[in-house]
């Protein structure tokens, strides 16, 4: 993991520092996949609208953050709503989740655009934590 | 520094301001100024870019009968501070107003260079370009870059070419003190010489043009641009000809399809066969403009024609155009058909330019960051419908396209190239031209400059100091793996 962090662009290294010093102390780099990095945001409790009680959450951020946006949230496990309705934009076995779920059976990939997330300075990376959890709250609402 | 050529470049805005400082009306005599210099490092060309001027204050520039023109200590100190802030080097420029031939640095000038540039260079570090220039009364420049090995050992390399960029492009041969001129074939180029004269034809012959993308639009440009008379073409493309794209690949043959020939090599073959400029050169680069390995080839060029259909490529070229002072002309088509009704239901063809003096592609609406982000994905998860690709959707979601509209776009791009390089149509230099396929009409957008808060403005002339948004082209990666 340290090697991956050292290899990150400076902007993302600063962003990861901001994430750790703020909302997510346990944030780390899970993998670098193509032009994206997967940040492990740790495990958190889910709203009661989900059958699962908690999920480990990953945010997928462009290696060229500032010029490109984050795209996608991954959860382990694949989530289900209590009411049985499908969760919009959650995919099982998605290519983009392979770095954290090689078998493609344990995760949910959430196609999630971050279009209006702040993207002016490195520290804005820290916002992925709130956005990822907003994505999960919306998915259960 | 292994570059073969040394160029000097500046935006029209910086050039005009420098001229106003160097030749103030009603004030004869020598004048001078200091500017910040940034490097732009191509594969065979190094360009010294005058990024910005350190504005002189009262008493900063004086003339002394014994020592010639002098910059005050506080002016030099401010300039060094600014060079540190930007990360660049320094240009000391002054005039020899009585020189009407080739401006030559005097003994005073050389002594001042050894004294001031050397000491300031020590403070700025070895990567900072240290440059001096003399401008004659005929407004001709002589620009030299120094390498110091101690105060008394200096080597100077003189720039051979100067480019003033935005919104047009003026290229000067500093050794001949004239517009940069390529070779002309009066007989083969007679009809266009009747339009823009032999000087214009020579200017085209002096251009090195990059062609990004050698597909539907690019393959047409690969033939037309050499016919226009440009001196050199660098074609950048990694794709190969297939049966599926043969119907809009100008100049390709069935044999090329059988051989799965590289489009860039086909384009170069067609370019060489079509060129009208004597000693024309064409070079193919199998690469992607979003990858670092290809960028240096682009930085060798004077103008870039982008015919690649990728928002990420447009984002990279947009930033490159501003940072390195290389205008980029983009062209593309977007068509939607209703095959059962045998008609085109919507479509547009657009040509836009970016670079100093032009709005950036983002402000022109040519791409959004979201679409440029999508373009960074692997083709397995991207697809034409973006992130919606799931399950067993076909990978081959080819956009509708036809050679007829490609030819229209190529023609508009060629006209824009003429407008930029020769100022043939000044009113049609800065705008997006759009052909509406349904209506059969051509209009232009009202966007003539960037938004007030656009970050591109701050990057003009930063050269290598501006990090381009590069990465791994997943399409090129897939092509490499399947080759």
Write the layout of secondary structure elements.
The complex is a heterodimer of chains A (141) and B (483).
Chain A: H1 2-6, H2 10-21, E1 28-33, E2 36-45, E3 54-62, E4 71-76, E5 90-92, E6 108-113, H3 127-140
Chain B: E1 5-11, H1 12-22, E2 32-41, E3 45-54, E4 61-64, E5 68-71, H2 73-86, E6 89-96, H3 107-124, E7 130-136, E8 141-148, E9 154-158, E10 161-165, E11 169-173, E12 178-179, H4 190-205, E13 208-212, H5 216-228, E14 232-236, H6 254-258, H7 263-274, E15 281-285, H8 292-298, E16 303-306, H9 311-324, E17 328-338, E18 343-354, H10 369-374, H11 403-422, E19 433-436, E20 441-444, H12 474-482
Helix pairs in contact in B: 2-3, 5-7, 5-11
Keywords:
heterodimer; A: alpha+beta; 6-stranded antiparallel β-sheet; 22% helix; 28% strand; B: 10-stranded mixed β-sheet; 8-stranded mixed β-sheet
């Amino acid at each position: 993991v340290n090697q991956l962090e050292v290899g990150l662009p400076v902007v993302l290294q600063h962003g990861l520092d901001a994430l750790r010093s703020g909302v997510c102390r346990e944030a780390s780099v899970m993998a670098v996949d193509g032009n994206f990095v997967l940040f492990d945001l740790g495990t958190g409790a889910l709203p009661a609208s989900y059958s699962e009680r908690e999920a480990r959450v990953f945010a997928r951020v462009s290696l060229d953050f500032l010029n490109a946006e984050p795209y996608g949230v991954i959860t382990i496990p694949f989530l289900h709503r209590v009411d049985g309705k499908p969760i919009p934009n959650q995919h099982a076995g998605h290519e983009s989740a392979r770095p954290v779920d090689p078998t493609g059976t344990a995760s949910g990939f959430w196609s999630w655009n971050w279009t209006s997330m702040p993207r002016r300075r490195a520290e804005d990376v820290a916002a992925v934590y709130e956005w990822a959890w907003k994505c999960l709250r919306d998915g259960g609402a | 520094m292994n570059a073969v050529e040394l160029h000097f470049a500046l935006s029209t805005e910086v050039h005009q301001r420098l001229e106003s400082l160097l030749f103030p009306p009603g004030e004869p005599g020598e004048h001078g100024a200091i500017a910040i210099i940034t490097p732009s490092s191509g594969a065979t060309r190094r360009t010294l870019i005058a990024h910005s001027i350190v504005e002189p204050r009262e008493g900063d520039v004086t003339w002394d009968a014994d020592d010639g023109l002098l910059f005050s200590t506080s002016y030099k100190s401010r300039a060094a501070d600014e060079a540190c802030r930007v990360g660049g080097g320094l240009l000391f420029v002054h005039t020899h107003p009585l020189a009407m031939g080739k401006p030559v640095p005097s003994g005073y000038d050389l002594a001042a260079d050894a004294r001031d540039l050397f000491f300031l260079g020590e403070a700025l570090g070895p990567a900072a370009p240290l440059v001096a220039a003399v401008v004659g009364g005929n407004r001709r420049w002589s620009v030299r870059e120094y390498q110091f090995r101690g105060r008394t050992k200096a080597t100077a390399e003189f720039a051979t070419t100067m480019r003033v960029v935005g919104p047009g492009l003026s290229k000067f041969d500093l050794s001949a003190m004239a517009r940069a001129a390529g070779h002309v074939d009066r007989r083969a180029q007679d009809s266009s010489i009747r339009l823009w004269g032999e000087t214009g034809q020579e200017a085209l012959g002096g251009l090195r043009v990059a062609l990004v993308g050698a597909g539907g639009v690019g393959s047409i440009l690969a033939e037309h641009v050499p016919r226009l008379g440009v001196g050199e073409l660098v074609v950048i493309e990694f794709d190969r000809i297939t049966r599926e794209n043969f119907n809009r690949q100008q100049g390709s043959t069935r044999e090329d399809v059988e051989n799965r020939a590289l489009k860039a090599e086909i384009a170069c073959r067609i370019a060489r066969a079509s060129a009208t400029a004597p000693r024309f050169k064409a070079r193919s680069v199998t690469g992607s403009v979003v990858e670092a390995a290809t960028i240096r080839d682009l930085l060798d060029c004077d103008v870039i024609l982008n015919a690649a259909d990728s928002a990420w490529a447009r984002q990279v070229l947009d930033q490159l155009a501003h940072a390195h002072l290389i205008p980029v002309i983009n062209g593309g088509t977007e068509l939607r058909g209703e095959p059962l009704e045998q008609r085109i239901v919507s479509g547009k063809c657009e040509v836009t330019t970016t670079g100093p003096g032009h709005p950036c592609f983002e402000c022109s609406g040519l791409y959004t960051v979201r679409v440029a982000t999508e373009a960074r994905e692997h083709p397995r998860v991207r697809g034409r419908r973006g992130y919606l690709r799931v399950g067993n959707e076909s990978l081959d979601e080819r956009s509708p396209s036809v050679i007829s509209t490609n030819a229209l776009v190529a023609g508009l791009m060629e006209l824009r190239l003429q407008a930029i390089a020769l100022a043939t149509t000044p009113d049609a230099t800065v705008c997006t031209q759009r052909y509406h396929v349904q209506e059969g009409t051509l209009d232009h957008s009202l966007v003539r400059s960037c938004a007030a808060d656009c970050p591109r403005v701050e990057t003009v002339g930063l050269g290598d100091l501006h990090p381009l948004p590069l990465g791994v082209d997943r399409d090129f990666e897939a092509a490499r793996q399947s080759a």
